Amino acid sequence: MDECLIHSQFFGGKEYRQLESRPDLLTSTSSSPSSPSEEKRVDHFDLELPDGDVVRVNKRPGLDAFLKSVSSQFEVHVFTAAMSVYASPVLDVLDPSGSMFSQRYYREMCVYDESLNVYVKDLANLDLGHPMGRVVLVDNNPMSFLSQPSNGILVSNFYDDPEDATLGAVEGVLERIEGEEDVRGTLDNMFGLRDALRDVRENGPRR
């Protein structure tokens, strides 16, 4: 979810997401949720969380059309390392009718890897009801794929780029592999995550 579909900026001091290096866009845009910068050209919405914190959510360009399209063709699940107190209200806005996301999985469904200090998204822990060869994980964090690297579509980080065209490219990949009985061989060839993450397991992340 975070930096993959959306990018959130918090006006309080809490952090609900996985610890990653993120730019502090608030310092260059707006000091309050009521005064968005005129230079801000990506679609966004402001949201008050159940605990009172306020968040501005930047939507990756084309997000609404992407979600509508892929959910009409595929079974779409959201798997995030973020805390549900933040992620659930955001997803409610993105899918107000509850018709696009079949299931939502939050931080408690991830596997925390102490050696790498990262939450891993192990698809085997989810009750997906499909063979693994027909399951795809789209994520911006390579570490998310550690358990099933051959199922991954790796995308770039999104923060606030109005020219970003990533979601259209993802839809193109999905259309390419839609008819394959087992998508893992094609994804291995396209993204090479299996070999790259084997190196991470053996030698640790590169710095």
Topology:
Elements: E1 6-10, E2 44-48, E3 54-59, H1 63-73, E4 76-79, H2 84-94, E5 101-105, E6 111-113, E7 118-120, E8 137-139, E9 152-154, H3 166-177, H4 184-191, H5 193-203
Parallel strand pairs: 4-5, 8-9
Antiparallel strand pairs: 1-3, 2-3, 6-7
Main location: mitochondrion
Pfam family, one: NIF
Organism: Triparma retinervis
Overview of the molecule:
The strands form four sheets. The protein has a three-stranded antiparallel sheet with strand order 1-3-2, with no helix packed on it. Strands 4-5 form a two-stranded parallel sheet. Helices cover 26% and strands 18% of the residues. The chain is globular, with a radius of gyration of 17 Å. The protein starts with 5 loop residues before the first strand and ends with a helix. With 207 residues, the chain is an alpha/beta fold. The chain has helices at 63-73, 84-94, 166-177, 184-191, 193-203; strands spanning 6-10, 44-48, 54-59, 76-79, 101-105, 111-113, 118-120, 137-139, 152-154. It has a domain at 63-203: Rossmann fold (3-Layer(aba) Sandwich). The relative contact order is 0.15.
